[in-house]
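re: ur question from yesterday

yeah so i grabbed the chain u mentioned. its 77 aa long if i counted rite. heres the sequnce exactly as i have it in my notes:
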Amino acid sequence: MLERFDRITHNPNVMGGKACIRGMRVTVGMILTQMSEGCPINELLENYPYLEYEDIMQSLAYAAWTVDAREALIISA
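ran it thru and got these structure tokens back, copy pasting raw so excuse formatting
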């Protein structure tokens, strides 16, 4: 299933192995936190010109997938 998240990387040498965007020091969590605080996508793209729209969309999809996977583990336990 992770193959659908080709822009999300995990490397223990980058940000402690947290889910990052394309190997950069930009975590999925950072994107989600800023969006949850009301930062619109276009502002994120302006503030981080090396990010692409698809990076943000995959961050959202990855977060949703992670929550679903954890809920499934809890329900099956």
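noticed a couple things. The domain at 2-76 is CATH 1.10.10.10 (Arc Repressor Mutant, subunit A). also The longest helix spans residues 53-76.
anyway ttyl
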